[in-house]
Amino acid sequence: CRATISSDQGKNLLGGKWMKFAIxxxxxxxxxxxxxxxxxxxxxxxxxxxHTTKKLLTALGDSFTGSSGHKFITSLKETNGNIIQxxxxxxxxxxxxxILHTRRVIWNAMTxxxxxxxxxxxxxxxxxxxxxxxxxxxxxxxxxFPRFMVKTITSSEECSKYRIFDVVLPLPxxxxxxxxxxxxxxxxxxxDDYLDFSEKFGAKYFWDPxxxxxxxxxxxxxxxxxxxxxxKPIDISHIVHVDPIDPDVHVNERVLENEYTLR
Length: 263
Known about the structure:
Layout: H1 7-14, H2 18-28, H3 32-46, H4 50-60, H5 68-78, H6 83-88, H7 92-118, E1 127-130, E2 136-140, E3 143-147, E4 149-152, H8 156-159, E5 167-170, E6 177-178, E7 199-200, E8 203-205, H9 211-217, E9 226-228, E10 233-242, E11 250-258
Antiparallel strand pairs: 1-4, 1-5, 2-3, 5-9, 6-8, 7-8, 10-11
GO molecular function: pseudouridine synthase activity; RNA binding
InterPro entries: PsdUridine_synth_cat_dom_sf, PsdUridine_synth_TruD, TruD_catalytic
GO cellular component, one term: nucleus
């Protein structure tokens, strides 16, 4: 995400022109790097070896260097793709952090491919938030979040009922569904020691770590299973900040609230 937005995009936000804002954001994103990295990510996921991890590290570039995910993938390179041996070289807490960062990289690449190939339209096979279903409640740090159900679009008639703000993609290393319609390359990720696919509602399951990996991670849960590829802001309110040292200094702070947080 960018730290600032253009004046035109600011007007779209203030005017509540959410779809125009969304399309403007899609047009402005520089996603070529992750698009180029996507084949390397797919090859790496099929079989992590010294060769595929080296290609992946090169494709992800300098911004990935030094990160938690970089340490994990570098360890895989040194062990020729032995995921168990790589995780054993870190503490349990570090295992969790490294895998979290790695799955974010993979999710960002998938999202970029989805947006580049299909744009802001909803298509058959997309996973979307099902708002008509009863909402569960998730409590985190004394903040309450709604927990929405996720469904797969199965007909063109359903497409008109949803927008880009409803579309979600699963995070890797959860049992999240991903439809083969958009990502046929992922059908090759079927090796026993990395991925376990099963059929459900015409979709596929993502990787569920083997028991020995679950043991290394301990009881630390992966809370987020799906992420919206774009979140619709619904309210911009103003808070007047008064400097305690100089009471004559006033600053308007804009607080941007999201329509929902999907967990």
